[in-house]
UniProtKB/TrEMBL annotation:
This is Obg-like ATPase 1. ATP binds at N366, V367, G368, K369, S370, T371, V564. NCBIfam families: redox-regulated ATPase YchF. GO terms for molecular function: ATP binding; ATP hydrolysis activity; GTP binding; isomerase activity; ribosomal large subunit binding. Residues 1-25 form the signal peptide. It comes from Phytophthora cactorum. Hydrolyzes ATP, and can also hydrolyze GTP with lower efficiency. Has lower affinity for GTP. It is found in: Cytoplasm. HAMAP family: YchF_OLA1_ATPase (MF_00944). Pfam families: Aldose_epim (PF01263), MMR_HSR1 (PF01926), YchF-GTPase_C (PF06071). Keywords: ATP-binding, Cytoplasm, Hydrolase, Nucleotide-binding, Signal. Monomer. It comes from the Eukaryota.
Length: 721
């Protein structure tokens, strides 16, 4: 095996630096633009991203660049997105953070998007040279791809091991994000709670306990390396002279074989860094006060070296998605509005009693909707034929929610049976343009979709000439807009019909009619402008209640499922990125699944074989698990448990419910008759080893009726007669 970091003398670094030049004293850049109005700029020196301006705010750069940065084609650039490779920090014989960021790369291609649904793409390459071999005697090739969407910048570094043996390296995409002013809580970073990290300043290992990391201390340096960090990290930026906004950094790393097969996901870390005032003054290429205008959120592999076998390719991929910190309803002038997450607790008596826990799977004909339904539910009830409307009546399947906690409870307490919670999936007939006027199976579709709590939109993101598309071409954005338009028109018909009927009841003494009319009159122009009902809010409680009772289609919670080929199951493709761009810019959820892959995996009888099959395609869980998790979050459900000799059982309750409401889920009488609840958290149960041990150690608490349930609570309800 070749040692990845061979100690060499500084003369080799000098040799590399001496080989670099700048063109006419200025660094050459490659510019990208997008039909939506976004733009990006990349230096050839270091393949260093200099600028990214999103379509939602083209006058404001997402990326920070220091005004004091060196621009001499020799020293590294301060700001932007430096490519760190093959070492993180200092290493004997290597430049700090590696040689990739101080090498002139080659522009391989630069293609501007002509279709708003596609990205503009620039590709850069770098290969081992005599200079790099003196520091690191291995053969390799680097490819760096920059994709520009409307409000998203995607960058991917690919390391090809062309050496004869395994190599090892560090790599990082060193994002500098621009912020208005980090003082006074101006910027927070979330998504890292519970993650172990190394505090580079204090030189100690810690576990992150904060929900949001606030960068407020303008003096001290922040430098944390989070080990095996989550794939999504969000920087929320408070606007001073600009709107509040957020930048979501989504990352992943994976290894592929010689022919691009068997993508295996790898662990990735994240670095959060701000130099603070004291450190900033010591940096020659950084302004004394510039620390208040930046935060680094950097994905990569730096806690340990990334091994890469000969002939294989490692990919480090990230997406920067710019959005508003508090998503608001928008017209479809710049970004067509989408059905997105509605974070309002639906008024439902007694927790989840009578609460719809159904997910309606919808989409255009022949997008793979029924195939996906069959795979997710492990049934064969839905016809999956190559012609429109093969699903006429909705197919229904109840699916147990995978829950390792309740299984562990049953094992420890020796319960005779295990009962998990359930979600109901409904496969609804395909929708076509004109459904709101009864075209195709429009009326039946709209009637069925009204009955579900969550709408899962399946969009086709794969090419296959053997599978027809109702519009004769594959365009997921067009399909989304078709569904969106039909649902808005259906809601508009509902509103207009109600107004017409109420006009006939002018003499009615019903006290609720005036508030209902007010709601309908506000909704009508809102929908006519092409907006979703989801964006409507009403200050008066009676009007808000009337709005919720209407159960409008565009007010339902929704998630988006991009159905891809088996080859794209782990990484997605340009079509999934276009859908994700539309959805996540407004704070919604988008998942990539492969119906054909899930269908094949579902044919295995045991879970172990199924997961082994999925692992070969770079997946570590089933699509069902991802869909259930997203649906639970949309429904705002928490899970609590009861356990005894007969059974260990999981129950759902709406987040924020009281102990009395939770008891009422088991039996409606219990809500009124509850005296008190004995409870212990699941984590405390695991630590102590049993309910008896938890009680002996004083962790079994006695709570009253108004106790607010927490996810994972284990209850023993004491009720009267």
């Amino acid at each position: 095996m070749v040692n990845s970091f061979v100690s060499k003398t500084a003369v080799f670094v000098s040799t590399l630096l001496a080989s670099l030049t700048s063109a006419n004293g200025e660094l050459e850049t490659v510019k990208l633009s997008h039909p939506h109005g976004s733009s990006a700029e990349v230096f050839l020196f270091g393949a260093h991203v200099k600028s990214f301006r999103a379509a939602m705010d083209p006058n404001l750069d997402v990326i920070f660049m220091s005004k004091d940065s060196f621009m001499d084609g020799v020293n590294p650039i301060r700001g932007g997105i430096p490519v760190v490779f093959p070492n993180f920090g200092g290493a004997p014989g290597f430049p700090n953070h590696g040689f990739a960021r101080i090498t002139n790369w080659t522009l391989a291609s630069n293609k501007e998007a002509t279709d708003k649904n596609r990205p503009s793409v620039a590709k850069f390459t770098m290969e081992a040279s005599n200079s790099t071999r003196q520091m690191w005697p291995v053969e390799f090739k680097l490819e760096y791809e920059v994709k520009l969407y409307a409000n998203q910048l995607k960058t991917a570094l690919r390391v090809h091991n062309t050496h004869t043996e395994q190599i090892e390296f560090h790599t990082l995409l060193h994002n500098y994000l621009w912020v208005d002013d980090s003082r006074n809580g101006g910027v927070t970073v979330s998504g890292l709670k519970g993650v172990d990290y190394f505090d580079q300043v204090a030189k100690v290992n810690k576990t992150e306990t904060r929900q949001s990391i606030s960068i407020t201390n303008s003096t001290a340096q922040t430098g944390n390396t989070y080990l095996d960090a989550p794939d999504k990290i969000v920087a929320t930026i408070k606007g001073v002279n600009t709107k509040d906004r957020s930048v979501t950094v989504q990352k992943k790393g994976f290894i592929t074989g010689k022919n691009g097969q068997k993508a295996i996901k790898t662990k990735t870390d994240a670095v959060v860094w701000n130099p603070g005032a004291e450190r900033a003054k010591k940096l020659e290429d950084f302004g004394d006060e510039e620390h208040i205008n930046m935060i680094c959120v950097e994905p990569g592999r730096v806690s340990v070296k990334q091994p890469l076998p000969a002939g294989q390719t490692y990919t480090l991929e990230q997406r920067q998605v710019k959005g508003l910190s508090t998503p608001k309803s928008r017209s479809n002038n710049l970004w067509p509005s989408m059905l997105h997450i509605r974070r309002v607790v639906t008024r439902t008596p007694s927790g989840c009693r009578g609460f719809q826990r159904s997910v309606g799977i919808v989409g255009m004909p022949n997008v793979g909707k029924s195939t996906l339904f069959n795979a997710l539910t492990k049934t064969e009830v839905a016809q999956a034929a190559n012609y429109p409307f093969c699903t006429i009546d909705p197919n229904v399947a109840r699916v147990a929610v995978p829950d390792g906690r309740v299984r562990h409870l049953a094992e420890v307490e020796k319960s005779k049976r295990v009962i998990e919670t359930q979600l109901e999936f409904v496969d609804i007939a395909g929708l076509v343009r004109g459904a709101s006027h009864g075209e195709g199976l429009g009326n039946k579709f709209l009637d069925n979709i009204r009955q579900v709590a969550v709408i899962a939109h399946v969009v086709r993101c794969f090419e296959d000439t053997n599978i027809l598309h109702v519009d004769e071409s594959v365009d997921p954005i067009r399909d989304l807009e078709t569904i969106r338009t039909e649902l808005i028109l259906a809601d508009l018909q509902t509103v207009e019909k109600r107004l017409t009927n109420l006009a006939k009841k002018k003499k009615s003494t019903d006290p609720t009619i005036p508030s209902l009319i007010e709601v309908l009159k506000r909704l009508q122009p809102h929908l006519e402008d092409g907006n979703l009902a989801e964006g409507m809010t009403f200050e008066k409680p009676d009007e808000q209640l009337q709005f919720e009772r209407l159960q409008l289609l565009t007010a339902k919670k929704a998630l988006y499922l991009c159905n891809v080929s088996e080859e794209d199951a782990a990484t997605g493709n340009d079509m999934t990125e276009a859908v994700r761009e539309r959805v996540e810019a407004e704070g919604s959820v988008c998942l990539t699944v492969s119906g054909s892959l899930e269908e094949a995996a579902a044919s295995f009888e045991d879970d172990e074989s199924q997961l082994e099959y999925l692992n070969e395609s770079g997946l570590n869980e089933t699509g069902l698990t991802k869909v259930i998790r997203a649906s639970q979050e949309l429904l705002q459900l928490q899970t609590y448990y009861t356990v005894g000799e007969k059974e260990a059982r999981a129950w759902n309750v709406l987040a924020g419910s009281t102990a009395a409401v939770a008891a009422g889920v088991i039996h409606s009488d219990f809500e009124k008759l509850l005296i008190r609840a004995e409870t212990v958290g699941y984590e405390d149960f695991v630590k102590t080893g049993s309910m008896r041990a938890a009680k002996e150690k004083g962790l079994l608490r006695s709570e009253g009726k108004d106790y607010i349930c927490q996810d994972g609570d284990i209850f023993n309800f004491l009720v009267g007669k």
